[in-house]
Amino acid sequence: MSVKKTTEKKPAVKKRVFKPTPPPPEPKEEKPKEAKPPEQPSEPPLKAPEPTPQPEKPKPLTLAYLSQELQSLKHLVDDHANLMIQLQEILIRKRKPVASNGKVQIKDKQTGTVYRSKNNAYQSLLKSGALKDLVDKGVFGPDPQKNTFGWYTLVREWLDRFEEVKPEETKK
Q: How many domains are there within the chain?
């Protein structure tokens, strides 16, 4: 006896596609009907039929017409440019002057040297070798020349060595 395998085909499953439902229609507002007095039959005035308006014919493209249009466009562009300039001038007048960043010079109290900026003080001392002991400790990181915040580390290490000087004080 042999056993026959029956292969039954499964019915194909239909995929459902969900379509978004349209929003429900908005209720229309009904205007209240106004009570009108009953109209009295009267003879409507006779009106002459109105003639239908003829479309305007475009102006012929002549050299004079084109020249005139070109000039009007040039004037329009010039007016626009003048308006832009006026608006920029108004903005400039309304702006507050830029506040000075108060550039501060740094004075080394030990040597009396005045540096033009905080970073300049750090870079100058680094190049001169005065910071060798701090560099050896690794305070300024693996590459001290590229350390943009070296000044702040330097001030933290040597608290009382530097003072800030306003540029006006050094000129006296």
A: 1
